[in-house]
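Title: [Solved] Olfactory receptor 3D structure

Original question kept below for reference.
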Amino acid sequence: MDQGNKSGVTEFVLNSLSGSRELQLFYFAFFTLFYLSIVLGNLFILLTVISDPVLHTPMYFLLSNLSFLDVCLSTFATPQMIFDFLMEHKTISFEGCMAQIFFLHVFAGGEMMLLVAMAYDRYVAICRPLHYAAIMNTHKCIVLVVGSWLTGVLHSISQLVFTVNLPFCGPNKVDSFFCDLPLVIKLACTDTYILQVLMLSDSGLMAMISFFLLLISYTVILVTVHRHSLAGMTKARATLSAHITVVTLFFGPCIFIYAWPFSDLPVDKLLSIFYTVFTPLLNPLIYTLRNKEVISAMRKLRSRRISS
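Solution (posted by the thread starter after getting help):
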């Protein structure tokens, strides 16, 4: 640590949701229930897709990977937040803080690219249906998923390589329930203007460009759907509306936080909770409640478990 962290700061103080002791216990119970719902809900989707041959298609292969990423995204910091509700002093080591930043950007960056891959899959399925089987083959799906993870890892390394060597000499209070990059670099005992610009050009532009590319692709798809008969495109509209909802809920908070790293707004903490805790739970709900194939497969899986 002394080689990377050229300062006297060995830990950071996390400023989680404040309130009385009774309110802290309520937060503990509430977020514990939420976290368990995220893990169980997304793992159930993953198990359903693996166990049902009907769902062995590119769309559900990508959806199952999204569920796995959602579990990872909610796990890198939420258990720490839940544990801190029972603690009077909420601290995290320097190494733990850097690890949180690394895994946040791995999982968030990977999810951004995976959502782009899912939009590409829907584009090919709706706009080029006759070529879908040839284009979205098993090899292409694996390349898209592996590429999403590699993009997340490279993106995270590019963020962390500058941050880990910053001098921190106090204050050491992070105004969030986890170590978020824009908040941590503001604590450095040096001018971080250039680093914030680099962060804007990396995380901020990555989020905005991905979001606008998704909007363009979904617009093209919706125009294509509009030109076809209502009877033949009802399922496509339902799938697209689910995709667009997930994209908006995920990218909205990310863009707000990382596209304006110079701001210091209290709402940033709430947005961080939203896209690391609430969105991973909404994803399985949105996809399962609007997808008859997934619901049917879940019922069959549950029936097999009960009968056995």
